Amino acid sequence: LVNILDLIVKKRDGEDLSRAEIEGFIDLVVRGEIPDYQLGAFLMAVYLCGLNDEETLYLTEAIARSGRMIDLTNPDFPVVDKHSTGGVGDKVSLIVAPLVSACGVGVGLTAGRGLGHTGGTIDKLEAIEGFKTCLSEDEMRDALQKVGCFIASQSDDVAPADRVLYSMRDVTATVESIPLIISSILGKKLAVKTDGIIFDVKYGRGAFMGDRARAEELGDGLKRVVEMFDGRCMVTYTEHNSPHGRAVGNAIEVVETIGFLRNEKVDEGLREVCYRVGALMLVIGGVVDDIEGGKEMIERSHRTGEGLNRFARMVEFQGGDVRVVDDVGIINLADRYSVVSEQCGVIEMIDARVVGELVRDIGGGRKKIGDEVDASVGIELMMSVGDRVERGDVIANIYCRDFSSNLRERFLSAVKLS
Amino acid sequence: LVNILDLIVKKRDGEDLSRAEIEGFIDLVVRGEIPDYQLGAFLMAVYLCGLNDEETLYLTEAIARSGRMIDLTNPDFPVVDKHSTGGVGDKVSLIVAPLVSACGVGVGLTAGRGLGHTGGTIDKLEAIEGFKTCLSEDEMRDALQKVGCFIASQSDDVAPADRVLYSMRDVTATVESIPLIISSILGKKLAVKTDGIIFDVKYGRGAFMGDRARAEELGDGLKRVVEMFDGRCMVTYTEHNSPHGRAVGNAIEVVETIGFLRNEKVDEGLREVCYRVGALMLVIGGVVDDIEGGKEMIERSHRTGEGLNRFARMVEFQGGDVRVVDDVGIINLADRYSVVSEQCGVIEMIDARVVGELVRDIGGGRKKIGDEVDASVGIELMMSVGDRVERGDVIANIYCRDFSSNLRERFLSAVKLS
Q1: Average pLDDT over chain B, rounded to an integer
Q2: Which contacts of A260-266 are long-range, i.e. CB under 8 A and separated by 24 or more positions?
Q3: Residue B40 and residue A45: Cβ atoms within 8 Å?
């Protein structure tokens, strides 16, 4: 067994930790044998002194191996996964999983819940009555064979060390450490083996990474560690100052997803991200040679309704009320209040962070892990970046329990006009 | 109330904390309202990002004010204090308190217990049967009036915040931070007001500061913060590679102290430190102009037996068995085992750290706060640096419960011959 105090001293003094030391650390984390003060001190030492690529790989491997390992690969067809670093109105997973699987590449997507100003794929799916996000390994394989895709929550027995470390990082101001972010993302992702992963790394107001340079630092790190792990991945970068698409909030994002897949209401910005991420999933899945070919294939599965069909089959397989696909009206939304613009101009930005925090504060997100989430609240943008707005135009609808002028003002403060 | 997470973020990002923030932090520490993980993370952020002089002053003041404040000054005579940064065989306080008070400067000395490889003044005094180190404020004033000096333990209600922080630093590898060391030393020292303090900052193998540069960094910091606090102090630096004097261990150091004050067995190295520190106490007390004048005065009080007399009165006032002054034989020592040199040469160094750890390990010190200490164990050096040793010479006596050849070898490994 390693001595945690020795590890704190080593990292504090800027020395590198060995594989055995990092494995020993994760072993103690899983056993719950590290006193809180030492875990806090160690995480801060890592935050401030960093981890090199080898240390990050060792930490990732140890986290991945701290629980059950799942292998989703099979000899019949490629299976890919995707991961977004988190955003506001980011319903890309809900859209691309069925679109990609309709092109012959299995999508085994494990996802998390929302925290802070960003939403979580699992919370969104749970807005569909009956939708079961907790799948056994057999159910996952079955979904891949019968539907071609699934979206499941990361179960408690996969990478349990990450849960301990993440909740501790959250309360010790050590979340924004690139090596810790990498090991947290990859510890969970690499515990579930697929043929390749697409990372959608976001930067800007709505993202955890404020600028492109820091996003690339994270993306490059993810790529290096996945390759050291003998895995395959591709990274794409998405600017994220304004929300993705028109809806922010769990149920309202499902409504937007279905409208998108039905080809009825398609936000062009959202289309760009979904086609790009979907195309890369086809590239890494090996069914197309390049991103252009991938986009064409995705466009076809979108246009023909094959994607919508897969979505319906996924909802059905995972126990959800499949009638939502034909009638989004059955999705429960809170009371609607319109927000009218008090000024005129062209929309330059709708600050995704402000919108994300607003939705969180009206009950749509979590301030801390374990908080209850109200799926029915959210914001629907009626206009988007580049649109001209006149005084008196309805700029957005807020779905909430208790509307107040304060909410209207907070929303309007997010809208930058020129 | 301040939010501890905000303070962690600020310090982590290298920003300066305000007086209100630091006062709020100490307030939370005293209330016990900071979760361990956040205290650990905050201390590591301070360790790695540092505190500037203002922040160190604010922290010191807040620690000093976290409990009872004592004022030992009086209109009749100056009262001074001294502080050593810790050493092996460091019985300087026991010797200089009576010598200085015999020269007309009151000595109000508050001291601590030993930790790690270094000894503590309070542990040493408790080797005298009946000696009471816990004095009330009235008893302290009374001792200054009737005896001229006292040596008391820092009571629990003085600077309580330091106790919480110190025990936390000990287990989070954040002890060796100069601003934290300064605020810990001064938080306790400045809670007890005197007319001036002498800091004996040690460096070398036996000290916490490995080299002179780091000792000066600490000494300069102590001076700057005391002056910002409108206090007076002087700093002296003492090289400390070999133990101070001949005895290391609580009871055996009392034996050496009495032999020294009786002018019977005087180690020249120990005399140099005691005269220098004592002279500075007289300078800051205002009874002499310079260190040379001070040394002459100290030498006189030593030679005439006035110092010994004060020591006896101090022991008597504090309830100790005063017969020890005439007969050190009544002091309880463990069984004695002689260590014979297996080589010959001139002694270049007797590694104080190795000796300190050896005495700690045979029961004379603490591995952690609260451990019991056995006053009767220790090491008596029969030779010191510069002496020529022949094979077969008795180089030291070890007083312990269970002697083993391993102890002999550990001791001999400390002796560097040329």
Answers
A1: 96
A2: A260/A95, A261/A95, A261/A98, A261/A99, A261/A302, A261/A307, A261/A308, A261/A311, A262/A305, A262/A308, A263/A302, A263/A303, A263/A305
A3: no
